[in-house]
Automatic annotation (TrEMBL), chains A, B, C:
<feature type="transmembrane region" description="Helical">
    <location>
        <begin position="171"/>
        <end position="190"/>
    </location>
</feature>
<keyword id="KW-1003">Cell membrane</keyword>
<dbReference type="InterPro" id="IPR005115">
    <property type="entry name" value="Gly_transporter"/>
</dbReference>
<feature type="transmembrane region" description="Helical">
    <location>
        <begin position="112"/>
        <end position="132"/>
    </location>
</feature>
<feature type="transmembrane region" description="Helical">
    <location>
        <begin position="6"/>
        <end position="23"/>
    </location>
</feature>
<dbReference type="GO" id="GO:0005886">
    <property type="term" value="C:plasma membrane"/>
</dbReference>
<dbReference type="Pfam" id="PF03458">
    <property type="entry name" value="Gly_transporter"/>
</dbReference>
<comment type="similarity">
    <text>Belongs to the UPF0126 family.</text>
</comment>
<feature type="domain" description="Glycine transporter">
    <location>
        <begin position="91"/>
        <end position="163"/>
    </location>
</feature>
<keyword id="KW-0472">Membrane</keyword>
<keyword id="KW-0812">Transmembrane</keyword>
<keyword id="KW-1133">Transmembrane helix</keyword>
<feature type="transmembrane region" description="Helical">
    <location>
        <begin position="88"/>
        <end position="106"/>
    </location>
</feature>
<feature type="transmembrane region" description="Helical">
    <location>
        <begin position="30"/>
        <end position="50"/>
    </location>
</feature>
<feature type="transmembrane region" description="Helical">
    <location>
        <begin position="62"/>
        <end position="81"/>
    </location>
</feature>
<protein>
    <submittedName>
        <fullName>Trimeric intracellular cation channel family protein</fullName>
    </submittedName>
</protein>
<feature type="domain" description="Glycine transporter">
    <location>
        <begin position="5"/>
        <end position="79"/>
    </location>
</feature>
Length: 201, 201, 201
């Protein structure tokens, strides 16, 4: 029950970030709702399609679809207020990141994938929705170009969770530190402006 | 038999619209054929992958692949004439919209999805191909940005069909009014220039 | 064993081409690694998802994931040297093209698809990764717009392999000439500057 609530919260934060991009790129109401939905659920869909867990859980439970629609509509009406909450959204997003990284990696590991692909799919769960969002909004995906530390904390937390699963550690014992690592690292990166390297030119 | 012909006609109209975008964006012959194919069949592929109905029917029956190739080649050679038939193509497209919305929603419902996800997947069947088309052609998808009433009639028709299925109504009794609703609404929107709302700035 | 090595080599060349695009578009380290991975493996993933062969083999064997990561890191550090090897990379890429076209078509045919869809999926194996690469890098996919002879040799080689499979010819007897046809045609097209037609305007 707690996990479901956390999951829905994470999806809601991602959905609002997607809807805000749609508003900024001057999309219409359909653009806002579609971007909210793919940003909230798209990463999990890519993971579930690749590990053959279809239909994805979020298509079989209408509550998972309700969250991005509500998030999209709220953003459609109240986007000026939400833009002012930019910092707060980034903080919630960091919690969603840790949750999705670990949940995605464990789901892949439970389907028999080894730690390397499971870590990759944990990262895909985190960044896949944002990739689709930015491609549909007509911009190069932020996560690939900004140099922000976003995908790296995600893949490292996913790897920790996947290795713990491989070593048969108790799930809570693995999941909570791994999620805390991802979220904490991301929050520190935001606060201190840490960046990932870019190629020398 | 009638349904197969209607289905192939709908795919053909979508394929021509995809090929016309390719010509306008100055793609080469491969670009024209790829955009014709993904516009005609891509929405159904996304739906089938998400509901685990793979390989998609349109990959197991070569007639489904022949239609976009023929549509693409005709557009490659005769695009000036086809541009002049813009209004006619929009009208045929509205019929394809109603057909795909209802067929997509019913297919998802038959695979055990509830009315909310089935309505979503009916809309995906309609707009998925155009989303891929526009992303590959290097433009923001028209359906997300134009404010045209396109996805909304599709999702409403899909929802009507999915609810009818849930209530065990006879298929024809559900499918025909739902498709007529989508197509009629779309045609009226074209004629009267009705639009969807965009966020206030 | 030989086939595994050839496969990994082909993936490595594709991965380097993806990473070079990322460097040119000024993406960060995550952009370089993501583009290397999707360019090397993405075409096969699309094929495997469409024929319901999930999880894809390249997600179940960590060596397939290691190759794009190494290719991406090498490109990240040594891209000036790799740009100077442009001609050499194009030649290796032509060998990867022949290999992927035939391997992709045969895999689809073994899953029961007829020669027409199998040829299409052979081409998808070849160009799918580059399509995702270019969309993520914010440019119109080269293979759709450049007029280069790339997809046409691929689909013809795939078709030859798929027809041979349909006629129960011994695999080696079919695969080697089909791959040689694709690779040779591609190499001749590079050397002589042959192009595909574009629509008249």
């Amino acid at each position: 029950m707690l996990l479901l609530i956390l999951d829905l919260l994470g999806i809601g934060v991602f959905a609002v970030s997607g809807a805000l991009v749609a508003v900024r790129q001057r999309l219409d109401i359909i653009g806002v709702l579609v971007l909210a939905t793919v940003t909230g659920l798209g990463g999990g869909w890519i993971r579930d399609v690749l590990i053959d867990e279809t239909p994805p859980a979020s298509l079989e439970d209408w509550r998972y679809l309700l969250v991005p629609v509500v998030g999209g509509l709220l953003t459609f009406w109240f986007h000026p207020a939400l833009y002012r909450m930019d910092r707060l959204i980034n903080i919630f997003d960091a919690f969603g990141l840790g949750l999705f990284a670990v949940a995605g990696a464990l789901k892949a590991a439970e389907h028999g994938l080894g730690p390397v692909p499971a870590a990759l799919l944990g990262m895909v769960t985190c960044i896949g929705g944002g990739l689709i969002r930015d491609v549909l909004a007509g911009r190069v995906p932020v996560v690939l170009v900004s140099g922000e530390l976003y995908a790296i904390p995600a893949v490292v937390g996913s790897a920790v969770a996947a290795i713990g699963f491989e070593l048969d550690a108790p799930t809570a014992f693995v999941a909570i530190p791994a999620a805390a690592l991802t979220t904490g690292w991301r929050l520190l990166a935001i606060r201190h402006g840490w960046t990932a390297p870019t190629p020398k030119t």
